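Quick question: what would this complex look like in 3D?
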Amino acid sequence: MILSNSPALVPLSLLLAAIVIPMAAFRRRWLAYPLALCASAFATGISVVNIIRVLTEGTIHYHFGGWIPPIGIEYVLDPLSSFVTLVVNAVSLMVLVHARRSVAAELPDKSMPFYAVVMLMLTGFNGIILTGDFFNLYVFLEISSLALYGMIAVGGRKSPIAAFRYLIMGTVGGSFYLLGVGFIYMTTGSLNMADVARIAPSLHQQPALVAALGLMITGLGIKMAIFPLHGWLPDAYTYAPSASSALIAPVGAKVGVYAIIRVIFYVFGVEFVRNSLPITEILAWLGAIAIIYGSIQAIAQKEMKRMLAYSSVAQIGYIGLGIGLANPYGIIGAVLHVMNHALMKACLFLVAGNYRLKLGHSTIPRLDHRVRRRMPWTTAAFTIGALSMVGVPPTVGFFSKWYLALGTIQNGRWLFLTALLVSSLLNAVYFFRILEKVYMKPLEGEAADDGSVSLDEAPASMLVPTLVLGIALLLLGLLNAVIVTGIISRIVPPGM
Amino acid sequence: MFDFIVGHYAYWFVFILMAIGLYGMIIKCNLVKKLIGMSIFQVSIILFYVAGANKWGATVPVADPALGTADPAKYINPLPHTLMLTAIVVGVATMGVALALVITIYKRYKSLDETRLLEQMRKEDDTE
Amino acid sequence: MRTYRPNPIVSLVSRLVSPFIVMFALYVIFHGHYSPGGGFQGGTLIAAALILIRLSEGNEAAQLQFPRSWGTPLGSLGVLIYFGTGLATVLMGGRFLDYSVLHLSHHVSMSRSYGILMVEIGVGLAVTAILVSIFDNLLEGNPDV
Amino acid sequence: MGIDTMTISFVPLLAVLVSLLAVPLILFSSRRPNLREFWTFGAGIIKFGLVLSLLPGALAGKSVGIELLELAPGIRLALKADPFGVFFAMIASGLWIFTSFYSIGYMRGLGEHKQARYFSAFAVCLSATIGIAFSANLLTFILFYEILTIATYPLVIHKETPKAIRAGRKYLAYTLTAGLFLIAAAAVTWQITGSLDFAAGGIFKSHPMAPSTARILFFLFLGGVGVKASIMPLHSWLPTAMAAPTPVSALLHAVAVVKSGVFGVIRVVGFVFGPALMKEFGLGRILMVFAGFTIITASLLALKQDNLKRRLAYSTVGHLSYIVLGAGMLTSAALTGAMLHIAFHATMKITMFFVAGAIYVNLHKENISQLNGIGRVMPWSMGAFTVAAIGLSGLPPINGFISKWYLGMGSVQADTLIPLFILVASGLLNAAYFFPIVHRAFFRRPDGDELAGHGEASPFMVVPLCLTATLSLAVGIYPDLFFRFFRLASNVAGAILGGA
């Protein structure tokens, strides 16, 4: 029973938690956190079951209410969706473990709604990833976006403005997507992705269908924060509470990426896209520009979270580039980078959270060697995350870059290769800037008060997830071939 | 060509509304005006769907014994309407969140002018 | 903002109209599964009736009718009814929201119909509670009302 | 040694891992210096033993190795101890023992801070170097190459002075860029050939390339390995990085890092491109032009340095290009000479750095102009320095003569005399910048009586430097002594050229 419903159980369990938390915590506030954690752990467990099922049984279709598509809504579990749900749920679980203390410190009286909203956001994410229906995707997109606005707005004084700007942008994005869906429905008469994929080639580049493609990619591009549409991202990540930004940054933009991959490669197909609009080309260029722009902006930032936010812009550029290359290596690189970036960003944002808890700030100029003395393990996790961002082997960062590089070479795009490699250097600049500060003594003039600084590490509930993510970066880097051959190579759409 | 323009007249209005909405969201500095633009924008898309569902000479999609259920051309396509019902709900929820945000912003900054708010934010960033 | 001053006409009319709105709303909800209408629309109507009282009678009187602390739990309860129906179908061995397995009636189609009715009730409850609490939240901290 | 009971193919892996395993031990015993140094030492000896145990197989021309997990589809993390790898690993691990011994004296003599970090980074560096030596394919090579880059960084900035930090930044900027070139080059190679495995004679054999592609690819590779090999104009990080403590300069900048660079050059020339391709596209000549330019310019620059370590650094830049020059000539004698020079330059240069460090610890002098009469207080050290200076100038009976002799022979074999002239000129320049130091040390009177009361440096430092000097001398007289450098080198040269 559980097994046969396993695809639906992931979002449903999270949704249930989102409902139960406000009711249960009506009288007992402390119940909110354990419920959220249980739901997230359950969802992660089911995601593992799902991915095993997909790998053994092949693609699974789950029909809601027993209605057969295209009439009913179906959930599709294929290697891509099962992989991305697992990444999203596992990373969120880690962040949630970490969140208890940071939420208690930063949002003391809002913890119950916070966890409910987090559950809602995760429901939305999982729904986006699993659904096989265009309109259903829109609904989940908006559910997750609404939850995101809330999660950002509970931060400090400035966070409502950031949330509002995100809301405006996000609504435009969602509406563009909805408009695109409207065009699709009017030309094909179906909202089911597989159905549309079957019908679309026979429509021979009908202008309405091409317009639909363009509108959907633009809309999803805003949600994904690809370069010129990224304006909302830095403020949103910076002013959100630590727990929110640690949840949003790793997985938030990824679902947009996922939806774009789905639309371009699985619904319309590369052939159609190439012949209709130069979307892949544009995505690749925007990706390359985002890589450079984001990295340079990141160098200029003083706040660690803002720096990480700009680096997210760059990292999303990598993914955009991989998608835009539209060849197998590009896809492998992009999907691997989805996982990689989720892990790295989660790790780094958790570090920022730990710093905020113990030091009260995460401003780069104020970090110094005492930080390392106080929090050696957190700093070690930061180092691994930073090395992965720079792309030093054997971290995952190196390998996703490797596949992307192979992809650029396969298409003979040397300029993109250059952008890819130069950005590594820029990453090195802004990460070693921090590493230098935390690992080295202050310059002469300041008192060397080594003795007075004692070990004051973040609590275990925060430290363990940080370290787990750091170690995962190393391990998954070494084992990336297993993931690539086992899962990601099956994602590469046929005919490519 | 003329037929194309006249035949799609509903869509032209939809696009005009959409442009007005986008204009409001992008150009206007007042946050509430932005929201008004957003609302217009959302409504234009809803109208787009509804217009697309329309059929000449068809009636509401409720089974009418007089018309029978054999010929779907006699009924308007109900699916876009139901979809838009959901879209309206999404719109209401978004509007609710947005208004809550606007109220919070106004309480904290005593202003709803975006340029001034951004200036204020940067200033606070620098003093931190 | 102007201060609230009771006005007998407004008060009387809204008190008079409100029960009828609720009545109509219930009709809309309970007919939603086989004619135009449904939980969303009905829920909105109920919420309108409640908000009407809130507007005309002021906050204090309205709190007696529908306390603001009910908003979140009732909203959750509504979704939970929806969700519970779905869960029941899963527990009965079907797919999520596959009402046909619920055996509420001898006919499969009637069984579906009743299943949808339950969902509509849940939706109506949730929409009512949430809309009212949106209204309440927007007023929060505004001493003038 | 006790390792023979194991499957022989695990030995390369163990050799890489042993110093890595020492890292946690070093960190955990950071409060007990003696125990900590014991771990360093133990790991060094075991490592050297492991590498030596591979020597008989290597001499017989056999390669042993192990394939571990897949790094990327089709590319495994593979270690292979081929003769060339064993050759390099032997030098690196052997000299690590000396350096650890010396480090103890140096670090304690100066009372340096953060010694646990120092020794553990050192151990990681060694692991990476042995990993580079035993890499069976380019991706594994890149993996260890980058680890080496990162692990060296804490050593370069060890003093944490603004100068050291600047040096660290410069070092990272150069080497990380180089790593990127290498990644790009490897990716292109993979696209063209579908294989990244090193093979004597090259991996492009059955994959024809356009000349322009080959040249671009070669420059990418050169950009990758050339930075660590400090070919001009990519050399300038090396003199700056002399801000590091002297043992670091000694081991890393005379043995591990820069030698990984030249090792990489020979790997690229002999095992990726292969002599045939190099000749076909005139790539060898490109290499020779760069190397020749570097040798002369670096020697001239060395002349005007007053800081002893900087002078040694420029001398290193020049001598590394000897090896590159040898690789560019592509004849058996030249390749043999180049490989021999990897080993011999290491023993000589490490001696010199040890001496420089001993002087610094003992007398706190860094500049050559302050060294008047120092030979009277530190006769052993300066004696060893003299031996190394003779060798580096290419005079018998020190080992530097042998490698230079073969390089010269290679030049004749290659039917061009320009390299020979460069070598001779460089020898003269070497003499010109080293002998004045010797002269000052032994034949000038000390300024005032500041040297009074000072004696020889601590035995921890003097013993290793005397040993390395003796080694230089002994190998110079009989090159096949102990480690059979000569047999190995000529075998490898034969394999590269034979595989063409």
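Answer marked as accepted. Chain A touches chain C through 16 residues (CB under 8 Å).
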